[in-house]
Write a structure and sequence with these properties.
Elements (H helix, E strand, L loop, with lengths): L3 H18 L3 E17 L2 E19 L2 E7 L4 H17 L32 H16 L4 E20 L4 E17 L6 E9 L8 H14 L9 E7 L1 H14 L2 H5 L20 E3 L22 E5 L2 E2 L6 H7 L7 E2 L7 E2 L4 E3 L6 H6 L3 E9 L9 E12 L2 E14 H7 E3 L9 E2 L3 E9 L2
Parallel strand pairs: 7-14, 13-18
Antiparallel strand pairs: 1-2, 1-4, 2-3, 4-5, 5-6, 7-19, 8-9, 8-13, 9-10, 11-12, 14-15, 15-16, 16-19, 17-19
Length: 448
């Protein structure tokens, strides 16, 4: 695999080819990755996967017309043909008043922050197999576990580069380690399935395989005997496994595309109090070892930490250059590139700050409620904020967990849910969106 410097030079070379072919402006994205994964099931090796990929994509501009094209053929002749085809496509494309590269005066020139995304330790296939076996063995050792869907251990390496015709060229690399286990508890119609998984840039940041397996087994066993419940307007506790999805709906609603299209339930809420006072939501692209850390955005702009929600108030939108032009605002360094084409918009490492109460204290005052560990379906309307999803978890009776339940729905409106949200003090830092246990009062719970 190419080094970041070599990847940067390759992207810059394609931009130069496009300029020589007649492009007025251009940018190129280069990406390469390799990975190896070992899967075991019931103590035996089931699958070994090894993959390698390399891809380059070019975007060119002729006036306000643009086109994008990509290829995995990186020979000089193929790259010249790629540039020529992109220019022909751009000349035939419709004009877009908001198209263009990022403002030149906002490009970052470096030096880029060191984010510690590369682990020099590369596990052997034998080590991956041993980790997967240990995780599965740990899960299967628990009383009540009757079968296994298997365990997987994997390692990967990647590099990303971006170059533009107006002065930016940068690249960064990263590694990834992951470990997962899925097991089955019970017999016959009473079977339940659950899992545990973790991913990190550095192997040292993963829990032990035994801990991953034990957690998967405990979750599956805890579901045994799941019942149903009657509905009502009740307090709902969201486990950290699912609480990040609530903040995910916030992030989707404040992207520049949603605001420019006027298709967001937060459209007119800028600078308003949409959470309780004291609630803080932070986007930090420079978190060392963060899963979504990045030294620059998908257009070559600087990235920096930002409070998206401060003391409960919405501070602004997430913008790339195109949506910023539509809204007559400045881009915010949230452009994201995922292969070719125009940039999308994405936050980086996001967290909702911890509160002061323990999860048990959040639950203590609930006479009748639900504790949600699993969400099902995608019943969320981004325009109105209406929220309705299938769920599974546990009944709460008199402040205590009172047995597993399944096949119920929880519903509300995100604006009201945000206002009623109370975070616990159990924030952890191993996800891309890190959110503690949450309590939201007054949700509609529908059961059987």
């Amino acid at each position: 695999m190419l080094s970041p410097d070599q990847a940067r030079d390759r992207a810059f070379d394609l931009v130069e080819r496009a300029r020589r072919a007649g492009a007025e402006a251009a940018d190129a994205v280069y990406g390469a990755s390799s990975s190896e994964g070992i899967q075991v099931r019931l103590g035996k090796l089931e699958d070994v996967e090894r993959s390698e990929s390399e891809h380059i994509a070019l975007r060119v501009f002729i006036g306000q017309r643009s086109a994008s094209i990509g290829s995995s053929d990186l020979s000089p002749a193929a790259l010249d043909e790629l540039a020529a085809r992109a220019i022909d496509m751009a000349r035939a494309a419709p004009e877009d008043a908001f198209a263009g590269l990022a403002p030149q005066d906002r490009l970052t020139r470096g030096p880029f922050p060191h984010l510690d995304l590369i682990d020099t330790h590369e596990p052997s296939p034998e080590a991956l197999r041993e980790a997967a076996l240990e995780a599965e063995d740990s899960a299967r050792a628990l009383k009540g576990i009757t079968n296994s869907d298997g365990a997987t251990a994997s390692f990967g390496h990647g590099v990303f580069a971006l170059a533009t015709s107006h002065g930016f060229a940068g690249a960064h690399g990263s590694t990834s380690h992951s470990l997962s286990t899925s097991v089955v508890s019970g017999d016959g119609a009473e079977k339940q399935r659950d899992n545990a998984w973790r991913s990190a840039h550095h192997y040292a940041d993963l829990p032990s395989p035994a801990d991953i397996g034990r957690l998967a087994g405990e979750r599956a066993v805890a579901k045994l005997g799941s019942g149903k419940m009657k509905g009502g307007v009740l307090p709902v506790i969201f486990d950290p496994r699912v609480s990040g999805s609530i903040v995910g709906h916030l992030l989707g609603a404040i992207t520049g595309n949603a605001i420019a299209r006027r298709s967001s339930f937060l459209l007119d809420k800028l600078d308003e109090q949409i959470f309780a006072p004291g609630v803080l939501v932070v986007d930090d692209p420079h978190m060392p070892r963060g899963l979504r850390s990045r030294p620059f955005d998908g257009e070559g702009l600087a990235t920096s930490a930002r409070n998206i929600i401060e003391d409960g108030r919405l501070t602004g939108w997430l913008l790339d250059s195109a949506s910023a032009r539509q809204l007559n605002l400045a881009p915010t360094g949230h452009a994201a590139r995922n292969g070719g084409g125009a940039p999308g918009i994405s936050a980086s490492n996001v967290h909702l700050a911890a509160g002061t109460a323990t999860p048990a204290e959040l639950m203590a005052g609930i006479a009748d409620g639900v504790y949600v560990t699993e969400l099902i379906g995608q019943g969320v309307n981004g325009v109105t904020g209406d929220y309705s999803r299938g769920a599974a978890g546990f009944r709460i009776v008199n402040g205590e967990l009172a047995g597993p339940i399944a096949e119920f729905t929880i519903a509300g409106n995100l604006l009201r849910m945000f206002r009623e949200l109370t975070p616990a003090n159990d924030l952890e830092w191993h996800r891309a969106v890190n959110v503690p246990t949450l309590r939201i009062d007054g949700m509609t719970v529908a059961g059987d």
